[in-house]
Write a structure and sequence with these properties.
Blueprint (H helix, E strand, L loop, with lengths): L6 H5 L3 H15 L10 E9 L5 E8 L13 E5 H7 L7 H10 L13 H6 L4 E5 L2 H7 L4 H9 L3 E4 L6 H14 L6 E4 L3 E6 L2 H21 L21 H15 L4 E5 L2 H7 L4 H4 L10 H4 L4 E2 L3 H16 L13 E4 L3 E6 L2 H24 L7 H8 L2 H8 L11 E5 L4 H12 L3 E6 L13 E5 L5 H15 L4 E4 L15 H26 L7 E5 L12 H21 L5 E7 L10 H10 L4 H5 L10 H11 L11 E4 L8
Parallel strand pairs: 5-6, 9-10, 12-13, 12-15, 13-14, 15-16, 16-17, 17-18
Antiparallel strand pairs: 1-2, 1-4, 2-3, 4-7, 6-7, 8-11, 10-11
Helix pairs in contact: 6-7, 6-15, 14-16, 18-24, 19-20, 20-21
The chain binds zinc ion.
C-alpha cells in the first residue's frame, strides 16, 4: 500500500471539512480500496447554529458521490444528537431511516446521507474512513477468514460478523463496539464487507487505513497469495481471429432479456482469458462477489460460456428461492458478467459507463477470488445474503434515480469522417442521445474528438477494406455490436471540367465517396442485422445529387451513385429490419474545406458579402454542421422509425431542388 498523503497538497484544503475532502479523494484514487462510489467517510464538527446553540454535526458522504471526486457539497451534514438516539431504537425500516436522516440535516439542499450514517455517528472518533479494500475482503472470503483477521490485527481492530448493511449493521456495531474497543483500537473489520479506520485527524485515519490494509497485503504476499501469475497458463490467442459476429450475437441475446439495448464490453487480456479458462472456473466464479454491494452491478454470478437462456432460468430459480412472501419484483434476469474461454471477460451494462464499472469491479473480483484460492479456498457468503442486498430497496433506488435514459442508450453508432465538420458534429449529436460512438477518420485527431468513455476514435483510411474490417472488430470488442452507421467520409475536389478530368482524380473520388461506402455497408450488414432495435444507416449525400453544378463531375457522380446504393440497400435489407435514409446538405460552411479566404473569394465571385453568400437560399438561413448532424441522428431515431429509402434536403430551400 502506498501512502499518498502530501502535506503541501493537504494544506490547500483548510478546515476540518477540507481535510476530510482531501483524504477522501486519496482513498478514492486507489482502486484497490474503493471502486465506483464504494466506501464512505465522515468527520464530526461542532458548529453554532443561527440561534447561537452549539451542535455536533456529522459530515458524512452523500449517497451517489464518488470519493475520488468528492467536494464539500458531497457531504451531508446531519445532527449527531439525533443519530445517536436513532442508534438506540430496536428497529428502523429503510424508508424511515432515510426520512430521519434527510429531516435532520442542517442543509436542506445536501445530498441524502450515506446509509451508513448512523454507524459513522456511533464510532467515537473525529475522522472515520471506510473502504472495501481488496486485500481485506480477500482474507474474509476464506474458510478461516475471521481467525486470520483476528490473528493478524490482534487488539487493533474490532471484528463484526457479516450482517446486511444499513440500520441492522449500525445496531450490531453499537452493541459490539463499545464492549470490545480499547485504547489500542484504531479500526474495525466488517466480515465479508470491508474495513474502517479512525483518527483524531484526517491524516491519522487515512494513515491507519493504509497501514491496516498494508498489513493484510503483506500477509498475503508472505503466503504467496498476492501476486497472480496468469501468463504461463494462457496459450497464445490468435489476436487476428474475428469475434465480432459472436459478440454481437451474445449482445443481442442479453439485450432481449434486459428488454433494452445494452453495451457489451469485452476484455481478452491474460487475466480475463486465464480466469475464464481455468479448469475450476465453475467452482470459483459461482459463489458470489467479494463484497455484497458489488451484486447490484455484477449480479451474484457470471454466465459461464454463452447459454443466456440457461442463465436466465437459473436466475429465476434463485429469485424464486429467496423472494419468499416479500412483494419484490424480479429484476431483468440477464447476466452482467460473462466468462467465455474464447471471448474472455465480457461486461454488460445499459451504457458504456455502466459496462466499464462492471468490468472494473469484476477484474478486482477475479484477483480476490484467485488470491483467496492461493491462500486457502474462496468461500463467499451464502446466496441469501447477496439476494438481500441485490433486492434491497435502497440499492434499487440508487439505480432507479437515473430517470428516463436518452433515446440511444445502449446503442452503438459508427461514424466515418468523424474528426471534423459534419462527422464531428454527428459524434456530438449521437453522444448527446446516449449512444456509444465509434469515430473513424484518416486524421489522427479523431482519437481526441471526445473524452467521454462512450467514445472511441480510430484512425482508419476508409478506402482500405482491411482497415475497415479491423475498425469494426475493435468497435465491437469495445461496445458489443453495431446499431447505426453514418456514412459521412467524403472528398470534395476542387472544380475541374470534364474535358480536363484525369482518370486518377475520377478514380480517387469514387473510391472514397462510393467504393469505401459499399465495402463498409457490406461489412456492417451482418452486425446491423443483429441490432436489438433494427439497424439504421444515415447517409450524408449532397445537394449535387439533385442539382449538380458544372466542374464537380466526379463528386456529383459519386454522391449520386451512393444515393442509388442507399436505395437498393433499403430494398434489400428492409426484411432484416434495417432502415437507410439520406440527407442532402448544401452550403455547410463550418467545415474544413471552407477557409475564410475561400469563403471571401466565392462571395466576391457572386458580388456578395460573406454573410449574404452563406445565406443565399430561399429561407435566407445559414446551415451549420450541427444542423446536418441533428437531422442525421433523428433519421436513426423513433421519429423516422417507419421511413426507409428517403432523401431529405437540408439546404435552406433551393428552387432547383424543390
Ligand atoms: Zn461498505
Amino acid at each position: 500500500m502506498q501512502n499518498l498523503w502530501n502535506d503541501d497538497e493537504a494544506a490547500q484544503f483548510p478546515g476540518d471539512l477540507g481535510q476530510r475532502i482531501y483524504s477522501s479523494r486519496l482513498l478514492g484514487r486507489d482502486t484497490s480500496l474503493v471502486l465506483h462510489g464504494g466506501g464512505n467517510t465522515s468527520v464530526k464538527i461542532r458548529e453554532t447554529n443561527l440561534l447561537g446553540d452549539a451542535e455536533d454535526i456529522l459530515y458524512v458522504k452523500g449517497s451517489g458521490w464518488d470519493l475520488e471526486f468528492i467536494e464539500a457539497g458531497g457531504f451531508a451534514p446531519v445532527r449527531m444528537a439525533h443519530l445517536l438516539r436513532l442508534a438506540q431504537l430496536p428497529t428502523l425500516s429503510d424508508p424511515q431511516m432515510v426520512n430521519e436522516l434527510r429531516t435532520h440535516m442542517t442543509d436542506a439542499s445536501a445530498p441524502t446521507p450515506s446509509v451508513e450514517a448512523i454507524l459513522h455517528a456511533i464510532l467515537p472518533y473525529k475522522y472515520v474512513d471506510h473502504t472495501h479494500a481488496d486485500a481485506v475482503v480477500t482474507l474474509c472470503n476464506t474458510p478461516s477468514g475471521e481467525r486470520r483477521i483476528r490473528d493478524l490485527y490482534g487488539e487493533r481492530v474490532v471484528v463484526i460478523p457479516y450482517i446486511m448493511p444499513g440500520f441492522d449493521l449500525a445496531r450490531l456495531c453499537a452493541e459490539i463496539f463499545p464492549r470490545e474497543a480499547n485504547r489500542q483500537t484504531l479500526g474495525m473489520v466488517l466480515m465479508n464487507h470491508g474495513v474502517f479506520s479512525f483518527g483524531a485527524t484526517a491524516r491519522e485515519a487515512y494513515t491507519r487505513m493504509i497501514e491496516l490494509v498494508g498489513m493484510v497485503e503483506d500477509a498475503l504476499k508472505t503466503r504467496q497469495a498476492w501476486a497472480v501469475n496468469w501468463a504461463p497458463r494462457v496459450p497464445d490467442v490468435p489476436a487476428a481471429q474475428p469475434l465480432r459476429a459472436e459478440l454481437a450475437m451474445l449482445r443481442r441475446e442479453i439485450a432481449q432479456q434486459v428488454g433494452a439495448p445494452v453495451i457489451l464490453h469485452s476484455v481478452r487480456d491474460a487475466q480475463a482469458l486465464g480466469f475464464a479458462r481455468r479448469a475450476d472456473v465453475d467452482v470459483l466464479a459461482q459463489q458470489g462477489p467479494a463484497t455484497p454491494d458489488h451484486v447490484i452491478r455484477t449480479k451474484r454470478v457470471p454466465l459461464l460460456g454463452r447459454d443466456v437462456t440457461g442463465y436466465v432460468e437459473a436466475y429465476r430459480k434463485y429469485f424464486d428461492a429467496h423472494v419468499g412472501e416479500s412483494a419484490k419484483t424480479m429484476l431483468d434476469p440477464a447476466p452482467r458478467v460473462i466468462l467465455d474461454p474464447e471471448l474472455g471477460l465480457c461486461a454488460a451494462g445499459r451504457s458504456a459507463q455502466d459496462a466499464f464499472i462492471v468490468r472494473d469491479i469484476y477484474q478486482h473480483t477475479i484477483d480476490t477470488v484467485v488470491r483467496a484460492t492461493q491462500l486457502e479456498r474462496y468461500q463467499a457468503l451464502p446466496a441469501r445474503d447477496y439476494f438481500d442486498v441485490e433486492y434491497w430497496d435502497l440499492e434499487q433506488a440508487k439505480l432507479r434515480k437515473a430517470g428516463t435514459p436518452p433515446v440511444f442508450t445502449g446503442e452503438i453508432v459508427l461514424i466515418t469522417g468523424a474528426a471534423s465538420g459534419i462527422g464531428k458534429a454527428c459524434v456530438e449529436s449521437f453522444l448527446a442521445r446516449g449512444a456509444a460512438v465509434v469515430g473513424l477518420d484518416i486524421a489522427a485527431s479523431v482519437a481526441a474528438v471526445s473524452s467521454k468513455p462512450a467514445y472511441l476514435g480510430l484512425v482508419c483510411d476508409v478506402v482500405e477494406t482491411g482497415a475497415l474490417e479491423q475498425a469494426l472488430e475493435q468497435a465491437v470488442r469495445q461496445f458489443g455490436g453495431l446499431d447505426m452507421l453514418v456514412l459521412n467520409a467524403g472528398v470534395f475536389p476542387g472544380g475541374c471540367a470534364i474535358a480536363e478530368l484525369a482518370d486518377a482524380e475520377w478514380t480517387r473520388v469514387l473510391r472514397v465517396n462510393l467504393d469505401a461506402n459499399l465495402a463498409l455497408l457490406r461489412l456492417a450488414y451482418p452486425l446491423l442485422k443483429l441490432a436489438p432495435r433494427g439497424g439504421r444507416v444515415a447517409v450524408i449525400g449532397s445537394k449535387n445529387v439533385i442539382a449538380p453544378g458544372p466542374g464537380a463531375a466526379a463528386y456529383s457522380a459519386s454522391k449520386a451513385a451512393l444515393t442509388q446504393l442507399m436505395r437498393v440497400a433499403a430494398l434489400e435489407w428492409a426484411g432484416d429490419g434495417i432502415r437507410l435514409n439520406e440527407v442532402h446538405p448544401d452550403a455547410v460552411f463550418d467545415t474544413g474545406i471552407w477557409t475564410d479566404e475561400v469563403l471571401a473569394a466565392r462571395a466576391a465571385h457572386y458580388a456578395m458579402t460573406v454573410e449574404q453568400y452563406k445565406r443565399r437560399n430561399l429561407l435566407k438561413t445559414e446551415i451549420a454542421s450541427r444542423d446536418v448532424a441533428e437531422l442525421a441522428a433523428e433519421l436513426c431515431g423513433p421519429l423516422f422509425a417507419k421511413t426507409t429509402g428517403a432523401q431529405i434536403p437540408i439546404d435552406g430551400g433551393d428552387a432547383r431542388v424543390i
